[in-house]
Amino acid sequence: MRKPVIWAVGISKLGELYRDIVPDYVAQADVHIVDKGYEAVIEALERLPAGSVDGIVAAGSNGDFLRERLALPVVLVKVTGSDVMHALARARRALPASLPDSRIALVSYARPAAEFERFKRAFHLDISQHTYVDAQNAEDLVHRLRDDGMAVIVGPGLVTQLTERAGLTGIFLYSQDSVRAAFDTALEVARLGRIEAQRRERLDTVLRHLHEGVAAVDLNGRIEALNASMAGILGVTAADAVGRTLDTIAPALDIARTLESASAELEAIVSMAGKTWVINRIPLLDQGTLTGALVTCQDSQSFARVDRSLRSRHRPRHLVARYRLDDLIGDSAAMTQVRALARRYAQTDSTVLVHGESGTGKELLAQGIHNASRRRDYPFVAINCAAFPETLLESELFGYEDGAFSGARRGGKAGLFETAHNGTIFLDEIGEMPMPLQTRLLRVLQEREVLRLGANEPVPCDVRVIAATHRDLRQQVAAGLFREDLYYRLNILRMVLPALRERMDDLPRLTPLFLERALARAGARVSVDALQASLLPLLASYRWPGNVRELENLLERIAVVCADVVDAREISRARLVEIAPELGTTPPAFDVSKTNGGRTNSTMGTMGVTGPTSEAAVEASGAPMTGRERRAALELARIHSTLAACGGDRNAACEALGISRSTLWRKLRAG
């Protein structure tokens, strides 16, 4: 192995000092004394093959100039306190006896020598100190000092050379000890550089034999090495890529988070160059210190074993089920039975059909079943089938390929069934799903595979389905609005969530829970127990068309309005009814003739007409109705009842019913 090559750069006196010392390093290094400075050194290096020089020793402005412009390690000869003392001692001997110490000046590069200031104060020296930043500045300074009457100037090689040209006495500042220390440092840096080069060569050998794309970056994200596979993936040559930041070549492979946190990110999925890739980002540590990172990149279709990680491991926060079955609050017999049945259902993978009115907690139940099942560590994906138009719902559920339709995302998109792989998908308001999509859903349930829009090959998916509706699907089937075969596929495990009016015994448990949360959010100081005592009689007399959701929202409203109240006794019953008018209303009878079931259309002026939501009231009208008309009558009855309970406040009614204002308007007009 060749000895390290060191260039000792210095002119005049520093060069002479190098020549005295270099023979002592012949056995350790090949030292070349370069009697040049600044650009001339850089030009000489550019004429040599890369890697010909391992390090440079220089001083002063010359050293700083080279350090800023070269990738090679540049070691500076540093001035020590001993150097300053010995140089000043020589300066005093060189100063004519008739002249005072004030005729001596010390000149250093860039910043004053702190050692000199301490030495000056300790020995009460009347010697001035000056600094320079470049060659021209140094020449101007020497001329000014000469004009000020200085006789001896102490400084680096450039300064002493200029001093002697100006007819003054120049004292060289550096000592052999300082130069030897710089040489020793340069040799150590060269040795470590050799070790690093050998390590990098071994890494390159390993990288060349890997089929997956691999790139190593430094702490700044600049590519230090990459193999041919990664170069092919990025569409660059290795020579062009090294030295550039990875994110400028491939933003999708951004490594910034790994370099910031020093933590690995494994099996992330990214789209790049029209393909899906599995990416690993791994921090590189040297004795516990972060030195860079490694990025590996593999085509997702090149191996099947990564399938589980592709679709399940990378779970965004919104795909995590937050609630458990114990979050279904209530000690009533109905809720106790619901929780017990849900725990039993959670032990299987069979499809569950949940029936319940709006606001009863159907999604909370679905999340609880998921978290109690073996699929708890995998995604929980929820979608409301009534919230999307048919075409958008299809692409959301089943995904699409690149170019499947105008406006399709480049690279395509996985549907929610694929996203939920190994986990659970919750299909809320399944009764609103259009018939064409019901056919596609039936195939997914039967074949356990999904065909994206525009694709030819189906994608296997292992998903547990929980569906929910507030409608009677059997009547939907009879009316031709829901596929019978899909209904039987969904109705394997059936659950019914009771309405709040059917479990009023749970109010004393639900009320303080929601009230405490609402008061805390509002920053209220009133006692929960005291306010609850005033509220419970009113709450117990209300029918709760919006169920638990309406209860929670109503308590939120009361908490916000009463945020500044300290004593609950200040909140009278009348005040509570003023805040929540629905608590003081008694729903009147509902005239079913106002619905399509009675063959009479309501007008906009009848929107204030209200009534109970009971099936008995509709049946009692005696009007002949088809199945579809009967369902419409029931729905309209419920809407009018809720509007009455909300004092005609359509926003509150929409919130209680779980529908938008436009949907409310449409249903009232249709009625």
TrEMBL record:
Query: Which PROSITE patterns does this chain map to?
Result: PAS (PS50112), SIGMA54_INTERACT_1 (PS00675), SIGMA54_INTERACT_2 (PS00676), SIGMA54_INTERACT_3 (PS00688), SIGMA54_INTERACT_4 (PS50045)
- Domain PAS residue range list: 199-251
Q: Where is the composition biased (Polar residues)?
A: 593-605
Please give one Pfam family short name: HTH_8
**Record-level Gene Ontology MF annotations:** ATP binding; phosphorelay response regulator activity; sequence-specific DNA binding
Query: Where in this protein does the record put region Disordered?
Result: 588-614
Q: Which GO terms describe its biological process?
A: propionate catabolic process, 2-methylcitrate cycle; regulation of DNA-templated transcription
Task: Look up the record and report any one GO term of the cellular component aspect.
Answer: cytoplasm
**Record domain Sigma-54 factor interaction: where:** 328-560
Q: Which UniProt keywords apply?
A: ATP-binding, DNA-binding, Nucleotide-binding, Transcription, Transcription regulation
Matching entries from PANTHER family are given as: PROPIONATE CATABOLISM OPERON REGULATORY PROTEIN, TRANSCRIPTIONAL REGULATORY PROTEIN
Q: Which named protein is this?
A: Propionate catabolism operon regulatory protein PrpR
